[in-house]
Amino acid sequence: MQQHQRKNEIKGALILLLAAIIWGLAFVAQVSGSSLPPLSFNAIRFTIGAIILLPVAIITTKKQHLHDTKRAIKASAICGFVLFIAMTCQQYGCILSRNAGESGFLASLSIIFVPLIGIFLGKRLRLPIIIAVVLSVLGLYLLVFIGGTGTWDMGDALLLIAAFAMAIQSIVIARVAGSVDPMQLSFGQIVMVALLSWIGAPFLGGLPTVAGIHYAVGQLLYTGILSTGVAYTLQIIGQKTVDPAPATIIMCLQSLFSVIAGAILLHEMMNWNGYIGCLLMLIGSFVAEIPSRTEKKQQAITSHIE
User: Fold this and answer.
1) Is the pLDDT of residue 284 over 90?
2) For labelling, which of 72, 131, 190, 235 has a CA lying 20 to 30 Å from the CA of 171?
3) Ordered alpha helix ranges (H), the chain
4) In sequence order, which residues have a C-beta less than 8 Å from that of residue 201 and are 6 or more positions away?
5) pLDDT for the residue 304
6) CA distances (Å), 106 to each of 208, 252, 258, 259, 276, in order?
7) pLDDT, tens only, 86-111
8) Do the beta carbons of residue 105 and residue 143 sit within 8 Å?
9) Distance in angstroms between the alpha carbons of the first and the last residue of the chain
10) Residue 33 in 3-state DSSP?
């Protein structure tokens, strides 16, 4: 029984790793997709993602009661609105920063923001969180001010806002995930982002043009099919068998893959200060997921019961 569970955990970890690789490469697509205004890019990207997930959502909805479906729609609207803010800021930030690796690491700070927001929700501030924040702030300074572009600009600020919004979205999902079908929630929030992006596009940058779509077709297909449609589904499948802490650590590796992809595909370069900054932020992400004694006891009790 334990051996079978272990195999499922390893399989789930590999699935989450694949999702992290896909998300890391997506930053290259987002940075190079500047032929379209950010909201137009996201409108098409999330529409493609919704189409990819539509068959699964239909099958899932047929198995649910009407009351459960209504609850999923309400949860999707809330999560989708927060995700819309996050992805809008992230896309603007990626285009302004023009650096996939730097964008990926700034976006990964959502892992640090989650426990910090938890303080205002009544959770105790643990020592690993304090250490993680110090490492992340130091890493951020080395990455942005010394090792990366050398200046703090609007793109960096928007990416930090996006990371904060993603942290809120993660907390909201954690609160509603147990009461709604995960596939319905994933599909619903993607539809919400697509809808809000189409509504906002005419006022912020304009609707997509044929020429703009032509130049960004590869980036749109990658982010729409793989990053939005496939990776979100892989995340849901992987997290069914992997505990939250290791799952979060695996998924935060997307920042590392964004640096590797940026160097290979976009020929991005940093000095050693930038790479040290990335390393400190990555270590900070790992440290933030160190469980407290209480959490360890709860995990041990759960494991013993199972």
Assistant:
1) no
2) 131
3) 2-31, 38-62, 66-97, 100-107, 110-120, 127-141, 154-176, 182-200, 210-215, 217-221, 231-238, 244-251, 254-265, 272-288, 293-305
4) 37, 39, 40, 43, 207, 208
5) 36
6) 27, 11, 11, 11, 14
7) 999 999 999 888 788 888 888 888 88
8) yes
9) 10
10) coil
DSSP character string of 113-143: HHHHHHHHTTPPPPHHHHHHHHHHHHHHHII
pTM of the model: 0.84
Percentage of residues of the chain with pLDDT beyond 70: 88
Give the range of the structural domain holding residue 166, as residue numbers without chain letter.
2-305
Question: At residue 206, what are phi and psi to the nearest 5 degrees?
Answer: 95, 160
Total structural domains in the chain?
Answer: 1
With bands split at pLDDT 50, 70 and 90, how would you rate the model's confidence at 123? confident
| Pair of tokens at residue 252 | 């935060």
Angle 290-251-56 (CA atoms, 0-180°, nearest 5)?
Answer: 130
Q: Which among 52, 47, 57 is positioned nearest to 184, based on CA atoms?
A: 57
Structure tokens, 255: 């920042």
As a whole number of angstroms, the distance between CA 27 and CA 97 comes to 11
H-type alpha helices, 100-208: 100-107, 110-120, 127-141, 154-176, 182-200
Q: How far is CA 19 from the centre of its chain?
A: 10
